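User: Please predict the structure of the protein below. I'd like the answer in structure-token form so I can feed it into my own downstream comparison script.

Assistant: Understood. Taking the following sequence of 114 residues as input:
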Amino acid sequence: LIAKLESQREAEQPGRVDTQTVVSRIKPETATDGWAIQVGAFSDQRRAQEAVLAAARTAPDVLRLTRAAVEQQASGTGVVYRARLLGFEGETAARAACAALRREKVACIPVNAG
């Protein structure tokens, strides 16, 4: 997924990112599967996409089996885009991934998707 997104990104016009390839509204039935890590929440969809891709590139060995997603969530002041990596087996795995990202100065919190 990340390689696909990066190749699409390179083919685009400068300054324009096709965020629809990464953005998804996570359905309740898929959002409850396991644990995720969140690497940011943004008011701008593009910044959320960039954050999730940067995190995935920072620790590829730890995050190779995860799915990158940007979740659109309504908030009291508009829309928030949550940059997440999904698919961790449990809390311990999510916490270990966050620890690896923090060592590289990437903010991260484990999130129970269930």
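That's the full token string. Confidence is low (pLDDT under 50) at residues 8-32.
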